[in-house]
């Protein structure tokens, strides 16, 4: 009889267990131990529980509690006030059963997205290294940098969650962290002396359209929106599907700004990209509803795409123009870091640190250093001579000992020929003996080219042209 009673009790326990498991509060993957919350803000925290249950969120940094009741679908959300950067802290979330998140930091959070050059990890791709990565990984242990890498997935409709896990910065973890994101985070952490959180959501080879919301894409008549009723495998190139699955689940999570490294897959439609780039920014800003948060991106590096399609210089031009399309945007240039036969430049430190210069100067108000390469200010002609002046070159220009070989000029016949160019106290003077009356100038306007024009702070000038031919 005793055995029967024990067996019966065990069966009852098994039947009850799922109910207790469901009753425990559920958190989306963006919340977890080792995470970083944005400092000095009211950061939303949300999840699921039983409908109608009250959920209480308690924070160790101020010993305060925040409560709200779950709706009819079991969804709940509270806003938690965060202090100045610091930690580690803990957060306890309870709907009657407590869930505790330990080792939580308060600091600066950045979303890092794009295609393969953002996805490229510190360990590099097969036979494609990241310069200096072995040393960087070996010395990467840092309790004040954390990151989460979002698992790749597509969806025709917006999702509530994705797969990912916050990681501490230990060498074995950093080896699989986005290299561009890591070098960015490392410099920001060093310069500000605050914890940094990196949310990495990228997918190699993808176009920009999959990362934009459906509502925003309706503004572009050249984009065909997908049929939501389609079945089978959904390509990662389908418009909206990466926003739905890899961005939407974290909308609401408090953060400082976004980083973007993409464009290679859109290189043959530069005019469209010039519109889509600010379209992406507006779509994310609208989704979060927190104003014009900073959005900084990397211009694609020179690469030999072969003879098919347009020169990627047109796409670089579109990215350069887009940097002024909206407030709080900025572009990092890699004209000196491209590789003729590898679309994934090994110098990811340049990409990450140049993004960090933008953030430190434009977002955090730091000074004493330059955050942009030279940008053409004005072109004047006098006979056969052309005079160029530049912004972001207050201390002048340099080639670090190289000859200026990438300038070309054209007359009214629109035929460009190589020009002789010289750095002067005011900018650059150039001419071509065969062009008596120059009307247009181009610099490094080719697929693959090694840029040689810098400001004295060591940041390169983008390729550019003064014509619209």
Rg, Cα atoms, Å = 26 Å
Protein structure class: alpha/beta
Averaged pLDDT: 95
Count the beta strands: 23
What's the main sheet like? 11 strands, mixed
Low-confidence spans: 1-23
Strand content: 25-35%
**What best-fitting shape do the alpha-carbon axes yield?**
elongated
Could you estimate the helical fraction of the residues in percent?
Answer: 10-25%
Distance separating the two termini: 94 Å
Number of helices: 10
Descriptors for this entry?
alpha/beta; single chain; 23% helix; 11-stranded mixed β-sheet; 4-stranded antiparallel β-sheet; disordered N terminus; 469 residues; 23 strands; 10 helices
Describe this structure in words.
The protein is an alpha/beta fold and 469 residues long. It has helices spanning 2-23, 116-119, 133-138, 171-174, 179-192, 214-217, 241-247, 270-288, 313-322, 348-363; strands at 36-38, 42-48, 54-59, 64-69, 75-81, 86-94, 98-114, 142-149, 166-169, 196-202, 257-261, 295-298, 329-332, 375-382, 385-391, 397-398, 407-410, 416-418, 420-423, 428-431, 440-443, 454-455, 464-465. The strands form 5 sheets. Strands 1, 3, 4, 6, 7, 8, 9, 10, 11, 12 and 13 form an 11-stranded mixed sheet that branches. β11, α8 and β12 (295-298) form a beta-alpha-beta unit. α5 (179-192) packs across α10 and α8 (270-288) packs parallel to α9 (313-322).
């Amino acid at each position: 009889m005793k055995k029967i009673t024990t067996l019966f009790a065990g069966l009852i326990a098994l039947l009850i267990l799922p109910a207790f498991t469901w009753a425990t509060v559920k958190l989306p993957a963006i919340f977890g131990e080792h995470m970083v919350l944005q400092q000095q803000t009211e950061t939303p925290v949300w999840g699921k529980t039983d409908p109608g249950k009250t959920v209480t969120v308690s924070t160790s940094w101020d010993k305060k509690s925040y409560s709200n009741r779950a709706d009819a679908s079991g969804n709940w959300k509270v806003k938690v006030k965060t202090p100045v950067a610091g930690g580690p802290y803990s957060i306890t979330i309870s709907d009657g059963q407590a869930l505790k998140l330990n080792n939580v930091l308060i600091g600066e959070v950045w979303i890092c997205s794009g295609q393969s050059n953002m996805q490229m990890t510190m360990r590099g791709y097969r036979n494609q290294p990241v310069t200096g990565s072995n040393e960087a990984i070996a010395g990467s242990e840092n309790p004040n940098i954390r990151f989460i890498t979002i698992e790749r997935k597509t969806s025709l409709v917006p999702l509530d969650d994705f797969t990912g896990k916050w990681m501490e910065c230990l060498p074995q973890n950093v080896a699989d962290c986005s290299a561009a994101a890591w070098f960015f985070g490392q410099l920001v952490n060093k310069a500000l002396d605050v914890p940094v959180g990196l949310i990495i959501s990228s997918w190699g080879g993808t176009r920009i359209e999959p990362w934009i919301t459906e509502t925003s894409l309706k503004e572009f008549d050249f984009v065909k929106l997908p049929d939501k009723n389609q079945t089978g495998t959904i390509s990662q190139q389908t418009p909206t599907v990466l926003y739905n699955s890899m961005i939407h689940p974290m909308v609401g999570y408090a953060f400082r700004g976004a980083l973007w490294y993409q464009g290679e897959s859109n290189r043959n439609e530069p005019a469209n990209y010039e519109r889509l780039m600010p379209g992406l920014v507006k779509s994310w800003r609208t989704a979060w509803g927190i104003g014009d948060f900073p959005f900084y991106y990397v211009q694609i590096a020179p690469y030999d795409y072969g003879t098919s399609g347009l020169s990627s210089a047109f796409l670089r031009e579109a990215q350069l123009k887009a940097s002024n399309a909206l407030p709080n945007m900025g572009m990092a240039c890699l004209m000196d870091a491209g590789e003729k036969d590898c679309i994934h430049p090994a110098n990811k430190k340049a990409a990450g640190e140049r993004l960090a210069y933008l953030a430190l100067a434009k977002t955090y108000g730091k000074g004493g250093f330059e955050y942009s390469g030279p940008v053409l200010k004005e072109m004047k002609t006098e006979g056969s001579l052309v005079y160029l002046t530049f912004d972001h070159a207050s201390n002048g220009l340099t080639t670090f000992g190289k000859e200026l070989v990438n300038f070309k000029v054209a007359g009214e016949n629109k035929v460009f020929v190589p020009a002789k160019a010289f750095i002067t106290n005011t900018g650059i003077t150039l001419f071509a003996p065969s062009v008596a009356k120059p009307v247009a100038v181009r610099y490094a306007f080719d697929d693959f080219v090694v840029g040689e024009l810098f400001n004295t702070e060591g940041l390169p000038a983008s390729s550019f042209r003064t014509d619209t031919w």
